[in-house]
């Protein structure tokens, strides 16, 4: 796809110019590509993941898009499977980079090992849930607390999977499917709990 085609497809994203976006799982795959598209749309991006070397390369690529030399992207080391205190500290660091966060995209996730429910270990189950569900909840909790305190508002986008909707069941994916179902339920409940009351 040519550069002009990409820009034309991003035209509706023009309303996002200068919005600050925190995106987890940004070092590769979908997260990396979304960061690049957000950069082209003029967003300010906090690219978060475990692999800082990849984040630095990504942010350098995005910052090269700036015609004014203003920083568009900053890397943030964040392992969403960390404990609550570590995640809270990382979220505060993310907030301080641009002084706000307007959009959170919880993209970090893992598939886990392909094993049947009888062969999957408790540690493997916990690792998938810690990354896919608990991590998304903790990052959302701390970002939304900061969004809500000054009444700034904002948006949270949780990347889930069709596996969480029970439409694509893959053998050996019990932990993944269950964790993504949890992400879907968490998204709905947080939306209800965080909606502004008139």
Describe this structure in words.
- 47% of the residues lie in helices and 12% in strands.
- With 198 residues, the protein is α/β, with parallel strands linked by helices.
- The chain has one domain (15-194): Rossmann fold (3-Layer(aba) Sandwich), CATH 3.40.50.
- The longest helix is centred in the last third of the chain and has 27 residues, at 122-148.
- The protein is globular and about 55 Å long.
- The chain starts with a helix and ends with a helix.
For the CA atoms, what is the radius of gyration? 17 Å
Helix content: 40-55%
User: What is the fold-level CATH name, i.e. the topology?
Assistant: Rossmann fold
Architecture, according to CATH? 3-Layer(aba) Sandwich
Q: In which order are the strands of the major sheet placed? A: 3-2-1-4-5
Low-confidence stretches: none
Number of domains: 1
Query: Mean of the pLDDT scores?
Result: 88
Would you tell me the structural class of the helices and strands?
A: alpha/beta
Shape: globular
How does the major sheet shape up?
A: 5 strands, parallel
* CATH superfamily grouping: NAD(P)-binding Rossmann-like Domain
Annotation field: number of helices: 6
**CATH level-1 class:** Alpha Beta
Number of strands: 5
Order of helices and strands: HEHEHEHEHEH
Keywords: Chloroplast, Plastid
Pfam families: adh_short
Protein name: 3-oxoacyl-[acyl-carrier-protein] reductase
Subcellular location: Plastid, Chloroplast
